[in-house]
């Protein structure tokens, strides 16, 4: 691990009790949603992570605790270091504080996460849907949201499909 | 109709100024079917006379649900969809996806494939910048440039067709290398194009660079500063036109970009004209990179020999039982990627194009998120267009170089 990255990782994990994961040379800090804002603020202010690349989320349904992970990718443009932060969220309608005050471009990223996953960002200035129509119901990128095609029936899944298959209604 | 309009106002109450509610300023809907919005972008403009008070972009008209669809396909099949995101940069989308899969599964890429990838993505960059130059100048009523740039773009698309059989949605770059080797006539076709390209770029410049009408409509319009670029996460030619010399090909090199000599063109003004200059210079740099790559193109395989992830070549299937089994296994159930997540990025013609790929150990991507530059860049639209005339909005949209397929995914 790079020295500057190491310094940031030790500093943040020590102060906010973050778990450090390393995979394929990429470093991830798992920070609780209560402290994510303070951790991002510290990385922006004290460690020169001046560029927010992306905010996205992952759904681990049917797991409930945690059901979601919100993922931040941040960049130090002078040293070209990318750091990932993950914040686990429990329950079906979770909330997490917004990062919009730290990086203004979090605005649209968080709107997209709200639109696709139904994760609400507290303190966000404009929490509307961004891609789906305003009156859309449901959150498309959740794992319990159907893809919307008809599954082909084979011998191995015959029973399963049969149970869900729409049949013509019996005339009474 | 009026009912719908009222609800729209209510939704946007916190975004428009208080003068809009009393009717002092006018709300004007631009798009989604406006010819200069490059697809289906809707802008809600708040106007004081002809001056823009605020601009509210509304996207999502081209949403295709590709990220959701990818979760139900194996890694090889999901790749076919990524071409469709940014339809001006299909090979760049392929490349970044393949880089993510290769990093996740630790697949090696042969040297010849790496060099060919560079050539192909630089050709894609040329293609994208040519379309941008044509359409953006068309927006500013410079009709003839469009005809010339499309002429050269045809040659590039012909080269893609020669390699992959497809002009736009190529899916030519695959995890572990390329689909197949380039045909024999590839060399002469690319070299022929590289020979005429510098002259052609000069030709476009002679039409625009000193054209007083073009200068009038581009200089001092749509300004953004370097600090604002970093704050808003804007990269690519827009940031470089504001003096941020950040290019992923230099900053975090991939596919062997560290071996090529090229410059990062920058300008300081940060207006439409500066972006035009940067992109034209980038086309020259792409030509430079392709020329170097063509000279160092080694011979050898174009696909990894890792049979657990990469299908064997067709010729082997007829003579080797194992090759047939591998082929069958890989194209039916796919391969199981190791559990974990990676983020990789490359420099698309519009900025940082990243992929966040997460695997749960199965044959399908558990989550594949595209961090697309158009989405980020479109966000600064209000910043760029405030206090300009309505007519300038068209030029500003053109200078951002948005691709709505890339924005909405």
Summarize model confidence as the mean pLDDT of chain A. 86
CA distance, first residue to last residue of chain B: 29 Å
Named at the architecture level, the CATH assignment of the largest domain in chain B is Orthogonal Bundle
Task: Please estimate the helix content of chain A.
Answer: 25-40%
Our measurement of the CA-to-CA distance between the termini of chain A, rounded to an integer number of angstroms, reads 72 Å
Number of strands of chain B: 8
Large-scale geometry of chain B: globular
- Oligomeric category: heterodimer
CATH superfamily of chain A: NADH:ubiquinone oxidoreductase Nqo5 subunit
SS content category of chain A: alpha/beta
Main sheet: strand order of chain B: 1-2-3
Radius of gyration of chain A: 20 Å
What is the CATH T-level topology of the largest domain in chain B?
Answer: Cytochrome-c3 Hydrogenase, chain B
Largest sheet of chain B: 3 strands, antiparallel
**Morphology call of chain A:** elongated
The greatest inter-chain interface is formed by: A-B, 37 and 41 residues
Mind explaining what this structure looks like?
The complex is a heterodimer of chains A (172) and B (409). Chain A has four helices and seven strands. With 172 residues, chain A is an alpha/beta fold. In chain A, 25% of the residues lie in helices and 25% in strands. Chain A has one domain: Beta Polymerase, domain 2, CATH 3.30.460. In chain A, the strands form two sheets. In chain A, strands 1-2-5-4-3 form a five-stranded mixed beta sheet. A two-stranded parallel ribbon of chain A has the order 6-7. Chain B has a three-stranded antiparallel beta sheet with strand order 1-2-3. A three-stranded antiparallel beta sheet of chain B has the order 6-7-8. Chain B has a two-stranded antiparallel ribbon with strand order 4-5. Chain B has 409 residues and is mostly helical. The N terminus of chain B is likely disordered. The chains are: A alpha/beta (172), B mainly alpha (409). The interface between A and B is large, with 37 and 41 residues.
